[in-house]
Each structure stands twice: as C-alpha cells, then as structure tokens.
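Local shape tokens

___
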Amino acid sequence: MKNDFEEYLKDKHAEGYNGTDDDMPEAFDSWLSELDGEEYISYAEDWKFEADVEEKIAKELFNMVYQWGRIGMVVDHNAPAFKEKIIELRNYETTKT
C-alpha cells in the first residue's frame, strides 16, 4: 500500500502507460490534469480501502504476536495462526496488482 496518495496515483498511471521512462513524469502530469472530480474521488476511495484492509491485517498480526509474547509463547514463522495471517497479507498484496 502506498502511504502517499500521489504515489498511488503514479502507480495507477504506470499501469496503463506505454512510453519511455524519460517521458513518464510529464505524461503523469498530463494524465493527472485530465482527471475529473469523479475519477479523483474513485481513486481516493480505492486508495483508502486498500489502506484500511492492510492496516486491519497488520493490526491483527501485531496483536497476535503481542498476546503471544505476553503469555511467553514463542512466535515463529511456522505457527499456524501466524502463518495464516502472513498468507492472508501476501494474498491481499498479490490480488491488488
């Protein structure tokens, strides 16, 4: 997830860009200036949704590890619940692209 909305927009522009790397910044500026209000809102909603999903998974993972640490449980990458959260996060990351 991109923390910065502009970086998110740059990624969206790059998905459909067919040009040289040298021309990309100027093409992005042009593409950005052609977006209408509805498109901005749509991109902002998508960006926020992605941020919320990733934050939710990260919080669940952090809380799981924190609680295990509180009771003295050793956390390793083979623990089923931990592994499940990591897989969920990886799956989410791969479905975004």
